[in-house]
């Protein structure tokens, strides 16, 4: 496999969501305090996005 560039689908999908829709999406997800490699997770609720 060769690196061909960044994938943009995730950013594009959430870029179309309002802050309210994004917050609703986050509320539906289980909160897991650490990543698979043991790093701390982002605090919830997330701060408002800036453009």
Shape from CA axes?
flat
Q: How many DSSP-defined strands?
A: 0
Rg to the nearest angstrom?
14 Å
Give the class from helix and strand content and strand pairing. mainly alpha
What ranges have pLDDT less than 50 throughout 5 or more consecutive residues?
Answer: none
Residue-averaged pLDDT, rounded?
84
Helix and strand pattern: HH
Give the DSSP E fraction (strand runs of 2 or more residues).
under 5%
In total, how many domains does the architecture comprise? Answer: 1
Summary tags:
single chain, 51 residues, mainly alpha, flat
How would the blueprint of this fold be written?
Layout: H1 9-15, H2 19-28
Written account of the structure:
By secondary structure, the protein is mainly α. 33% of the residues lie in helices and 0% in strands. The protein contains 2 helices and no strands. The mean pLDDT is 84.
Question: How would you summarize this macromolecular structure in one to three sentences?
Answer:
This protein has 51 residues and is mostly helical. It has helices at residues 9-15, 19-28.
């Amino acid at each position: 496999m060769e690196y061909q560039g960044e994938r943009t689908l995730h950013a594009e999908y959430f870029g179309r969501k309002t802050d309210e829709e994004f917050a609703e999406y986050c509320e539906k997800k289980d909160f897991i305090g650490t990543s698979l490699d043991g790093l701390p997770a982002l605090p919830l609720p997330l701060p408002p996005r800036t453009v």
